[in-house]
Amino acid sequence: MIKVIPAADRHHASHGWLDSYFLFSFSDYYDMNNVQWGPLRVFNDDYIKGNSGFPEHPHSEMEIVTIVLEGEVTHKDSLGNDTVIRAGEVQRMTTGTGVRHSEHNSSDKDLHLYQLWFFPNKKGLAPSYEQKAIDFTDEKNELVPLVTGQKVLEDVVYINSNSTIYYANLKEGKEIDFKTFSIRKGFIYVTTGELFVNGIQVQKNDQVRSADVDALRIKATADSTFILIDLPGVEANF
């Protein structure tokens, strides 16, 4: 099963300083048929204007991943972390039993980031933090792992989930075959360009959700960038 969700079907929330596109139910947007995909609970595509941001607020029992595409975000939390996450860097917070944090764009330039929330594979975890600069924005014509909990990849950010997040920058005409298993789920979000996924056309900001397939065959019909997430298909394997 491969389902394409067009960019126009994303929920758009505009607050002046923030333009956010929700790929799953979040905040004031709720669709009982669009709550999660495997353990992936939230995927927000956020544009934050300069000198603005989110004041301190609480989280618990989630793995929160922030991927910065443009600009930089200043992060402060109740664990004592006070840091800046720049374009090309990835952050993970295990919120576990509870943590508070704030996120601000302290520069004059606009900030573009993806924030993803995953249900953890275990409740009651001690809160923790990790941040890593990963060279994922260059033209590599391959899947670059950013975050994983599958313990088979090195030099990536760890997550308490049986999932892996990849980023790819494909030149026009290049192809990638991602081998998977029918018990897994896949998720693709196109950042730029145009792809064919198993022969189905997807364009900028479209989503692909897959299940019960053995491979995702991805071909760029224009210079393209995208996120691919490999996910467990059933809750027992989260």
Mind explaining what this structure looks like?
- This protein is 0% helix and 56% strand.
- It has strands at 2-5, 11-14, 18-22, 40-48, 52-59, 63-70, 72-77, 82-86, 89-94, 99-105, 111-118, 128-133, 143-148, 157-158, 164-170, 175-179, 184-192, 194-197, 200-203, 207-211, 215-220, 224-232.
- A seven-stranded mixed β-sheet has the order 1-20-17-22-15-13-14, with no helix packed on it. The protein has a seven-stranded antiparallel β-sheet with strand order 2-3-4-11-6-9-12, with no helix packed on it. Strands 5-10-7-8 form a four-stranded antiparallel β-sheet, with no helix packed on it.
Shape: globular
Strand order of the largest sheet: 1-20-17-22-15-13-14
Tally of alpha and pi helices:
0
> What is the average of the pLDDT values?
96
Class by alpha and beta content: mainly beta
- Tell me about the largest β-sheet: 7 strands, mixed
Rg from alpha-carbon coordinates: 17 Å
Proportion in helices: under 10%
Low-confidence stretches: none
Helix-strand sequence: EEEEEEEEEEEEEEEEEEEEEE
Distance between the termini: 20 Å
Strand content: over 45%
Keywords:
238 residues; mainly beta; 7-stranded mixed beta sheet; globular
Question: What topology does this entry show?
Answer:
Blueprint: E1 2-5, E2 11-14, E3 18-22, E4 40-48, E5 52-59, E6 63-70, E7 72-77, E8 82-86, E9 89-94, E10 99-105, E11 111-118, E12 128-133, E13 143-148, E14 157-158, E15 164-170, E16 175-179, E17 184-192, E18 194-197, E19 200-203, E20 207-211, E21 215-220, E22 224-232
Parallel strand pairs: 13-14
Antiparallel strand pairs: 1-20, 2-3, 3-4, 4-11, 5-10, 6-9, 6-11, 7-8, 7-10, 9-12, 13-15, 15-22, 16-21, 17-20, 17-22, 18-19, 18-21
